Amino acid sequence: MAVTELRNVSKSFGSVRVIEPLDLTVENGEFMVIVGPSGCGKSTLLRMVAGLEIPSDGQILIDGTDVTGKEPSDRGVAMVFQTYALYPHMTVRENMAFGLEMAGMPKAERERQVLTAARTLQLEDYLDRKPRQLSGGQRQRVAIGRTIVRDPKVFLFDEPLSNLDAELRVQMRLEIAKLHRELGATMIYVTHDQVEAMTLATRIVVLRDGRIEQVGTPSELYADPDSTFVAGFIGSPRMNLVPAMVQGGDGAGHALVDVPSLGLKGYRAPLRDPHAALPGEAVFGVRPEDLIWTMEGETSDIALTCEIVEDLGSNVFLYNAASRDASIVAELPRGVHPAPGDTVRFRISDGTSYLFTEAGVRI
After folding, report:
1. What are the start-end ranges of the H helices in the chain?
2. What does pLDDT average to in each consecutive run of 10 residues of the chain (363 residues)?
3. For residues 312, 320, 208 and 273, what is the CA-based torsion angle, rounded to 10 degrees?
């Protein structure tokens, strides 16, 4: 059982603490994605699991064994880096077998494991090529193959797709997801791309300034964010978040809010906790897809002036700056293309709005 546990782990570089004390458990066979903006500490966290950085405090356990002070080679982990890290003078076969050779594995066994990994990654036709003769996606598959042959307890991925173009990123996401399903291995994956996180993860860790903001399945983080940070980070386009005033509660699990920038008065926003203390000033949230376009004569909640229409083929989005503090994005039906300056009306889908304190905490 390759359960990976971080117990009260923190990391400082001199007087600068980059990882605050945190606890995290990655279950056996889980695909855990650590996501967050640049500089939040996600790669440092992964490097501590790999043994490339030593925690300032706390313990790291893999398969029930404390590996905090162990060398990377003794931890039962294998890491795929952003930059591939292939040896340019070696063939694909030699790159994949090199770690096994250094570990003293007999040649016949090395060859067997390399061929098995090559078949899994569809690299059989490229084994005698050198990295310069491969595409970016093929090089990344070789880097992944080099980890597979070691049969690690835990696979670690440090932003492995960030050097690829958009089409290759989609292809490699599918290949990594398929690989996880076939191997059933424990995988920890770091990225700043929330689309990668949402499409790959069993669970997601949202990291902010070295702290865990929230942990959950992709659907949990999307539908039930704990904070404005998670609400704004998970989802594309991001959730609309605008200032609001709370006038009180209706006694039935809703807050009555005014949202001046949207022209809303006494709107009934569902509360996460019906008994929560209600602030005066708050942040009102609604996702673009929960703003439902209405035709003339239909009931609507808000009117937006069209500034820009973004047509992505499968999705059409209207952008509006209602005020300096409130930039709004709404999803339009395909075929609806208002002109700049047009007024477009929407209703808010029932039960889909969110309310947060000024500090960004969900209520």
Report:
1. 42-50, 92-102, 107-120, 136-148, 166-183, 194-200, 218-223, 228-233
2. 91 95 96 94 95 96 94 91 88 92 89 90 91 89 88 91 81 87 92 92 96 97 96 92 92 91 92 86 95 89 91 89 72 90 93 93 93
3. -110
Question: What pLDDT is recorded for position 322?
Answer: 56
Give the per-residue pLDDT at 56.
96
Encoded tokens for 318: 């209207």
| Cα four-point dihedral sign 204, 235, 278, 357 | positive
- Nearest one of 285, 273, 235, 263 to 343, comparing CA atoms: 263
What residues are paired with 248 via a beta bridge? 256
41: DSSP letter = S
Three-state secondary structure of 237-283: CCCEEEEEEEEEECCCCEEEEEEHHHCEEEEEEECCCCCCCCCCEEE
DSSP-derived secondary structure letter, 327: E
State the pTM of this model. Answer: 0.88
Measured between alpha carbons, how far is residue 62 from residues 41, 65, 69, 334 in Å?
21, 5, 12, 49
Question: Is residue 145 within 8 Å of residue 134, measured between CB atoms?
Answer: no
The contacts of residue 45 (CB under 8 Å, 6+ apart) are: 6, 9, 11, 19, 34, 190, 207
Closest of 144, 157, 152, 143 to residue 35, by C-alpha = 157
Residue 253 to residue 311: CA distance in whole angstroms:
37
32 touches 202 (CB < 8 A): yes
Q: In angstroms, how far apart are the furthest CA atoms of the chain?
A: 78
Q: 3-state DSSP helix/strand/coil percent for the chain, to nearest 5? A: 25, 35, 35
pLDDT at 179: 87
**What's the confidence (pLDDT) of residue 51?**
95
Which among 3, 152, 159 has a CA at the least distance from the CA of 82?
Answer: 159
Bridge partner residues of 78 (DSSP): 155
User: Coil, helix or strand for 156?
Assistant: strand
